[in-house]
Amino acid sequence: MKQCACSEGDSVRNYLRRVGSAVLRSPYTLILPAFALCLTFSVVPAALSIRDSFRSVDYVAGIDKFVGAANYASIFTDEVFLEVFKNTVVFMFCTVALSIPLAVAVALFLNEDRFMNNLTQSVIFTPHIVSFVAVATLWMFMMDPRYGILNHALGLFGLPPLRWLMDSSTSLLSLIIVASWKTIGFNSLIVIAALQKIPPELYEAARLDRSSPLGTFFRVTLPMISPVFVFLVTTSVIGAFSTFDLVKFMTEGGPRNSSSLMVYWIYRTGFLHFQIGRAMAGAVVLMLFLAAVSALNFALMNKRAHYQ
């Protein structure tokens, strides 16, 4: 009897061990932590934002009622929101158009296994890991109208000084310069990694065909690193649309909303003016526009990217 009970207990333990091993090795178990984090911090907040965008919510006054599409009608007839949306689109296009070509140029220059090049790569990557607060403080000193080094450099070329962050005509340009400078290092290292994966036989064949350096770049280098551009454009677009720190610490959206971007407008509308419904409506508009731009980017660039 005792031997039979032991055998039965061993069989139960073996069965539980097999089931536990199968569960732990299941791909669904492996993706469960990532799925839970995505659900908690992305899907659920997005769903709550969509819900609140159709409501008038004021936690201070204790108001929470359904208003339909009134919040959307309100923001699309608001001149400030339309200006902020235009600023965000301009900021996105300019930072992408400026940072990625410069990153490619820097990567081509540094694509050598030398000590100075490796040291320069480390120096160029430093702005990416420095906090936006430190970056904003540095550039605010450099853009000072009276004592900034940028106006001093303009004076060396006989150009008039600019008021940079203090002028509505140059405040957004100032943010574009700072954001592009901060991302060039990261983008350059990604391009360098792609350049080092190009088979040297292709360049040897180009030399045998007497291809010019410019022709080699457009016929060999650019097609081979084209998949990287899909990644860089997508991440740059998302980063541009989610820019908050620079606006907060450098301009606070001024002068006269000339440098205010969507995320900062959502923050001010929701947390400073307590108009949660309008803020969530703006967040939904931003989310849909970002999804459309990302889908368009994948649709257009994937056709031109060479993955083999």
Question: Which structural traits does this protein have?
Answer:
3% strand, 308 residues, two-stranded antiparallel sheet, mainly alpha, flat, 2 strands, single chain
Can you describe what's shown?
With 308 residues, the protein is mostly helical. It has 2 domains: 2-52; 70-304, MetI-like fold, CATH 1.10.3720. It has helices at residues 2-25, 27-52, 70-76, 79-110, 115-129, 132-142, 149-156, 171-195, 200-208, 213-224, 226-241, 245-251, 262-272, 276-304; strands at residues 55-58, 63-66. The protein has a two-stranded antiparallel ribbon with strand order 1-2. Helix 3 (70-76) packs across helix 14 (276-304), helix 5 crosses helix 8 (171-195) and helix 8 (171-195) packs antiparallel against helix 11 (226-241). The N and C termini lie far apart (67 Å).
